[in-house]
Design brief:
The protein has a seven-stranded mixed β-sheet. The chain has one domain: 3-Layer(aba) Sandwich (Rossmann fold), CATH 3.40.50.150. By secondary structure, the protein is of the alpha/beta class. 44% of the residues lie in helices and 23% in strands. It is built from 14 helices and seven strands. Helix 4 crosses helix 5. The longest helix is centred in the C-terminal third of the chain and has 18 residues. Bound molecules: S-adenosylmethionine.
């Protein structure tokens, strides 16, 4: 970090500023995070279905946040699963620990670490999953690390909103500039090309999840005010307030029943197999 600053004549680089902004955002939102977001069981049922035949499962949830998906994974797989919960944010991990403990789950360990430096032995995991988080990572470094920690034939599950899927959410459609400001999300072709660069990572399947949402306007306003998506941190304070007003006006124009704002949301789950070419030849 200091080296980067020296190169920039003492000024913080844009990357550093963004990293700190996001870190502070997640520190702030951690206590409310699970309650603010909508948790969908679909991706977890899909993942557990792929893993359930294994006699024991060592898995990692990278960018695990406050543990809403990790908990569901462990609850579905039971005691044969051991979960490493990895996040760089201390406040998120604190929430996760309380959440798991309150549900009497003991087969997990919270680890504070970066997605590109996973403190787990090489060739040791059956599953690496990451939900709603890859757009925060340095993706090439994360993929390299995921490939390192996965066993031969281990699976990497990436659950994300693609850029075009983001445009079709209630926020993408009606919150001014939401889609344009959120440049961190990936297009499918871009993701595919990243796997092609790694000889061990083989794209196995792609599953699109459709979620039919019905929310009262009040709940949407509560979510946005509390910045349930980090995209809202990409607005200045004044810009955000103006955009909120416009969003409300747009909703009033487009929907009659403000207790039942409906739309369809989509997410993509990529299943990637770690196949080590040198495994048999070694
Ligand atoms: C949008 S939240 C998603 C959390 C969780 N997966 C969920 O769906 O509820 C992204 C999470 O990634 C974490 N994160 C961001 N950048 C990270 C990095 N470089 N390494 C590890 N975790 C990171 C954040 O602290 C945050 O908890």
């Amino acid at each position: 970090m200091e080296k980067v600053r020296a190169r920039n004549n003492g000024k913080k680089s844009e990357k550093t500023i963004m990293f700190q902004k996001m870190y502070n955002h997640f520190l702030h939102v951690a206590p409310k995070y699970r309650e603010l977001r909508t948790t969908d069981l679909g991706p977890i049922l899909f993942i557990t279905n792929k893993l359930q035949d294994l006699p024991s499962i060592r898995a990692a949830d990278i960018g695990c946040g406050a543990g809403r998906y990790g908990l569901k994974l462990v609850e579905h797989l039971g005691e044969k699963c051991y979960l490493y919960c990895i996040d760089n944010n201390i406040a998120m991990l604190k929430q996760l620990k309380t959440h798991f403990t309150n549900h009497n789950i003991v087969n997990f360990i919270p680890i504070r670490s970066d997605s590109h430096k996973i403190p787990i032995q090489t060739d040791s995991l059956d599953c690496v999953m990451t939900l709603n988080a890859i757009h925060h990572f340095s993706l090439p470094h994360f993929l390299k690390e995921a490939s390192r920690v996965l066993k031969n034939n281990g699976r990497l599950f990436i659950y994300t909103r693609l850029r075009d899927q983001n445009a079709r959410t209630i926020w993408g459609m009606h919150f001014p500039d939401f889609h344009k400001r959120e440049k961190r999300l990936y297009e499918l072709d871009h993701l595919k090309s990243m796997f092609e660069k790694d000889p061990n990572l083989n794209l196995d399947s792609i599953k699109i999840f459709e979620h039919h949402r019905v929310f009262p306007l009040e709940r949407l306003i509560e979510q946005a005010r509390n910045h349930h998506y980090s995209t809202f941190k990409l607005y200045g304070k004044k810009q955000f307030l103006e955009a909120m007003h416009k969003f409300e006006r747009n909703i009033l124009r487009h929907y009659e029943d403000l207790d039942r704002i409906t739309w369809k949301e989509e997410n993509t789950l990529l299943v990637v197999k770690n196949i080590q070419d040198d495994y048999f030849s070694a």
